[in-house]
Amino acid sequence: MVILARPEIEALIDPATAAPLIKDAYRAARKEQINLPPVGHITFPDLG
Length: 48
Description:
Largest sheet: none
Low-confidence stretches: none
Number of helices: 2
């Protein structure tokens, strides 16, 4: 298992790249071309 801190996760996500992919996934789901799992939520404890 890999444990990442919030800044490490944020560094892996490029909003400019992710946005069109999210849009495409939404359109495909709306057309029932794909089936997406429920949205998850990660809570980060405030350790500082």
